[in-house]
Task: structure prediction
Amino acid sequence: GVDGEAPYGQKGIVQFAGTWLAGEWWQVKFETTGVPDEFWTGVGYLTKSTITDELLVPTACYTYQKRVYLAMGSQFNFSAIDDETGAPQFTLFEIQNPGAGFVLFTSQYGNQDVCKAFTQLQGRLAVIGGFTVQLWTVSANPEDFALNQILDNAGTEAVESPQNIGDYDAFYLDRTGVRNLKTHMDTLNSYVDDLGIAIDALVQEKLLTFALSSACSVVDPIQKSYWIYVGGTIYVLSRY
Result:
């Protein structure tokens, strides 16, 4: 009630279903009622050549600090707090829904790197791409999201392989074998450890004929060991 708020325009999503016919076009007219005609903003025409057929399709889902996160290719989306169903499944989370939004997943690897999976590490959200791991501090206010660290030449195509044990360890399947995201106790900086080196040769042989994306993992709730399934074999990390 004291400071003025800058105006912002309404955002909406329009979906055209079905197959586009040759020469077919749609007219979209935007206008504001109750003001002179010179203030309403134009007419737009949509044809198949002016839009893209690419849809934002989630490849992984993760819950963290009362939000749902979706891996959506070149970005990751997040819901509002305690409102995981308040968004279309295959498009952006509704930006007008307070607390929901998306973050572009950018790295030096350009278009070949996309968001694949999530885990958590030392109170931060670990966003895992094919070639990059990003550590994010998240907040109730999306504007306070902060990128803390980027680990290059680390990542996975196996979206169901990441698992965290405790707060300082997270495991995932790299192209070369099982790897471990760890955090230095003193600096809280993260690094990648080649924990699975003892079975790297076995895993790499499996991956010659087995799709990396088909691997999956779980943490044994009793022994707290990391189990990963690769090409018909379950490998178990012995912690004792």
Summary: Residues 28 and 210 are 48 Å apart (CA to CA).
